[in-house]
Design a protein that fits this description.
The chain has 136 residues and is of the alpha+beta class. The chain is 17% helix and 49% strand.
């Protein structure tokens, strides 16, 4: 039984080394880069929702567009109650900071989605993110 445990451990170590070597040589690529390229934040104070969204390109020549939606949970379904858009170029972060009056007795969240494009106009990434849910 002890030999079997050593053999299994050795197999996992060799497999891990093979994967690390393939990654380092560029043979393996992540299926989706930039999963941290989008951020979404929501806070509510005194009946005002403070919504913040960002989409950050990883390259200096990339452009970014952003769409931010404030959503309200009503009757068990999320409904968009406000939408804003923006963009940025030359590697700058596309960001939005908006406020909206909200009603008591509901849950709210912000959804941010974006498109990051290369300098030739081809889409590089389409990151998205939900904020935490806030009850008011």
């Amino acid at each position: 039984m002890k030999k079997l445990g050593i053999l299994v451990t050795l197999i996992f170590v060799l497999l891990g080394l093979s994967i690390a070597q393939a990654w380092a040589q560029g043979e393996l690529q992540p299926m989706y880069n930039g999963t941290n390229a989008a951020t979404a934040t929501l806070s509510i104070s005194g009946g005002t929702a403070n919504c913040l969204g960002k989409v950050k390109p990883s390259g200096a020549t990339q452009s970014a567009s952003i769409s931010m939606k404030l959503q309200q949970k009503k009757d068990g379904r999320w409904t968009t109650i406000a939408t804003w858009t923006g963009s940025a170029s030359n590697g700058s972060t596309a960001s939005l900071s908006k406020t909206k009056s909200v009603a008591k007795g509901y849950e709210y969240r912000v959804y941010v989605s974006g498109t990051i494009k290369n300098s030739d106009g081809s889409a590089a990434e389409k990151p998205s993110k939900y904020s935490s849910t806030v009850s008011y």
